[in-house]
Amino acid sequence: MTIPPDTELGAYLLQRKVDPDLASLVESIAASATVVADHLKEAAFQNHIGSAGTTNIQGEDQKLLDVLADRVFRETCGDATSLAAYVSEEAEEVTWLKAPAAGDLILYVDPLDGSSNLEVNLSVGSIFAVSQVQADGDTNVLRKGRDYLCAGYAIYGPSTLFVITFGLGVVGFTLDPSDGQFKLTNAQMRVPPETNEFAVNSSRQRFWDEPIRRYVDECLAGSAGPRGQDFNMRWTASMVADVHRILTRGGVFLYPADESNRRAGGKLRLMYEANPMAFLIEAAGGAASTGTEDILRIQPQAHHQRVSVLLGSSNEIERLVQLHQIHPSQEKIGS
Ligand code: P6P
């Protein structure tokens, strides 16, 4: 199922001369998002809120809507003739839809990120990225983020938006309830180098390494401190919502690996959370780092691996990298 080419998304893909196979997959991803958006609106009446009673590969409690969203993306995008592999947060193994041929597409999806917010009616999202099979028979899905062909997300909030980049420039489409079509509403999303807004889960402060502790302390010290300006803090527990705010007005998002999650490599997953968001943020003029290396340059070792994530306004990421150089973390953080 794809969006007819006479839509604003279809027109944008044509105008950018996006490869027709990739364009068709992107339109299927957008169509999936409209179906997920409908399921979210109807969830309370379909008894879809709550736990599925299962756990995913991450060992996390799967929500019914996690499972439903994964099924929607898998079925809707599975029709794309060029799609060879589907990598999902909700499935332990990679799903191969066909024998891989050079140029075929690989889709990485976090079908419903932030789903713990569903029962309290807060924004959640779907995160995606696409890369390419390098050679006939090549079953390696572990591509560096900088080699992705495109990345984006759908955010399900007061409005449903579809945000995407092909590496240069980030655009946003808003779902028009009057006709169920995505309309181009954000023609050039940019991350300004400066900000006074940071996002971190401060309840983890006791686990932080020195560089993160110092950075947050500097922000909290405000105009009386070394930064000479006051900062505001936001934390939505929904990466898509935090990143959308940063793409809309700037900011910095921190989910560092710390003493508590270091053994796992951090909390957020590289292939279908950190890499797509880093790809978007860098395409919008921002930066994304673990504190010691660019996220997009990491060579993945496993498709569910986790990573330390610092992303947003470039001046802030530069400050965080400097702090990591001055106060190297006690251990090399898995990445
Ligand atoms: P915490 C949601 O579960 C998620 O993967 C991201 O969307 C979000 O930024 C983070 O975890 C929230 O983590 O520890 O604050 O619940």
CATH class of the largest domain: Alpha Beta
> On the 0-100 scale, what is the average pLDDT?
94
Summing up helix and strand content along with how strands pair, one would put the structural category as: alpha+beta
Indicate the low-confidence ranges by residue numbers.
none
Shape: globular
Write down the CATH topology of the largest domain.
Answer: Fructose-1,6-Bisphosphatase, Chain A, domain 1
Helix content: 25-40%
Number of helices: 7
The CATH architecture designation of the largest domain is 2-Layer Sandwich
Q: Can you tell me the number of structural domains?
A: 2
Bound molecules: 6-O-phosphono-alpha-D-fructofuranose
Estimate what percentage of residues fall within beta strands: 15-25%
Strand order of the largest sheet: 4-3-5-6-7-8-9-10
Strand count, sense and closure of the main sheet?
Answer: 8 strands, mixed
CATH superfamily descriptor of the largest domain: Fructose-1,6-Bisphosphatase, subunit A, domain 1
| Order of SSEs | HHEEHEEEEEEEEEHEHEEHEEEH
Write a structural description.
The protein is an alpha+beta fold. It has two domains: 9-186, Fructose-1,6-Bisphosphatase, subunit A, domain 1 (Fructose-1,6-Bisphosphatase, Chain A, domain 1); 197-326, D-Maltodextrin-Binding Protein, domain 2 (3-Layer(aba) Sandwich), CATH 3.40.190. Helices cover 28% and strands 24% of the residues. It has seven helices and 17 strands. The protein has helices at residues 8-15, 20-42, 64-77, 210-221, 239-249, 270-283, 314-326; strands at 51-55, 61-63, 83-88, 95-96, 105-113, 124-132, 150-156, 160-165, 170-176, 181-186, 197-199, 232-234, 252-255, 268-269, 287-289, 306-307, 309-312. The strands form four sheets. Strands 4-3-5-6-7-8-9-10 form an eight-stranded mixed beta sheet, sandwiched between helices. A five-stranded mixed beta sheet has the order 12-11-13-17-15, with helices on both faces. Helix 4 packs across helix 7. The longest helix has 23 residues, at 20-42. It is globular, with a radius of gyration of 19 Å.
